[in-house]
Design goal:
β9 and β10 form a beta hairpin. The chain has 2 domains: 239 residues, Aminohydrolase, N-terminal nucleophile (Ntn) domain (Glutamine Phosphoribosylpyrophosphate, subunit 1, domain 1), CATH 3.60.20.10; 178 residues, 3-Layer(aba) Sandwich (Rossmann fold), CATH 3.40.50. It has 16 helices and 24 strands. α4 crosses α5, α5 packs across α6 and α9 packs across α10. The protein has 472 residues and is an alpha+beta fold. The protein has a 7-stranded antiparallel sheet. It has a 6-stranded antiparallel sheet with strand order 5-6-7-8-12-13, with helices on one face. A 5-stranded parallel sheet has the order 18-17-21-22-23, sandwiched between helices.
Length: 472
Amino acid sequence: MSELHDECGVIGLYSTDTSVDIVEETYLSLYALQHRGQVGAGIAVNQNGTIRYYKDHGMIPEALPEKELARLGNGRIALGHVKYSSGGTQVDHENLAPLVMRYIKGQLALCLNGALTNYHELREELHQGAAIFQSNGDTEIIAYLIASARINASTIEEAVQQAVKKLKGAYAIALMSPSKLIGVRDPMGIRPLCYGKIGTSYVIASESCVFDSMGGEFIRDIEPGEMLVIDDEGVHSYRENCGGKTAICMFEYIFFSRPDSVINGVSVNLSRQRAGRLLAQQHPVEADVVCGVPDCGIESAIGYAMESGILYATGLIKNKYIGRAFNNRKRNSEYLMRIKLNALKNNVNGKRVIVIDDSIVKGKTSRHIVSLLRQAGASEVHMRIASPPFRCPCYLNSDTTSKENLIAATKTTEEICAYMGADSLGFLSVESLKELAKESNLSFCDACFTGNYPLDVSDTSREDKYSKKIES
């Protein structure tokens, strides 16, 4: 069970039918992205150029009560967002999304999944121009840049294109003007973004699972650097920022995305099963059962079992009613983990167990898992990890921005194994990563394993006078 926090989820809908309840459609679609953020959610709806919104803390049913959604009215364009927490900290209400602002050309609403590496530079530039900020996140920076560019730009599309040329980092943006829905993906494609249709609505979303869950049609991924504009005349593609170096985040396949999603032409479920098969080849061990840590270790455990011929069994049960925001509770961490996860004794008692997880960050959760299996009677516990050792901070994806939080940055595999109390430990090799999503036409970012960052990260310290947090 990884100790990473998920990235946020963005969704935008443009309906060609005025009778469609677009708020309800957005609300239901957001559930498919709940895994990407569980500490806040919001919806904004555009009704004849007037944007109304509601956002609050909590998972979707808590953050978006029916009585508040009823006050939004109806319209033809809507945005939805689910938010994750940076470093387990409480998210200020100002940092929840969608961000709605009023400027010289009317209203603008914006949702973001990503992190800007030139945040400080851009914020200081805007401060010098007398900008007044209400939040400490990236979304407001981007909104200001678009609003500033719109003063001289003839269209919102032109303003967005001018603004994103100033951005460095990872981002997937969904925004709406009074008459248009726009999606933009960063030039390297680090963050995923795709589009399709649900009934009469065109939809921009972080993952393709949105279309399957709503009975819709997945059309294609938005290309790295592409801007997609949807209006009364249809769908328009702008590709002037396409064609450069690509680096989609490898953790989309390892952890972040839902297994039923397809990211850049590759099934997430299939990529995780491949990781398990490769683990079985690289780190075989005699055992009686293979089990996966729910939720992201299960597919890899199935792959390991298929490759090794060892029986797959459910060894760990997760409390499905506890979200990741539960980790913010002020209780002993071991006590919280016990409530969250339990071993299934009849499947592991007296058995040699191979347990598969997606990654190890701090190592505390992995140690707890080994302890649970021992207490349940497992005679041996062999830990296998469906990714390489997480040795380097990530500034584009998760909130692991310090080596202090990474056990693999300071300990060898043998030392980590001893710390966890496992009989053996094996990580997937770095060289194997390219096999996980070999059908993708994009290159990958593996900086958290190798330290080879695809862009400059020298301006990414979060400890500054603005108390910068990684944005949704």
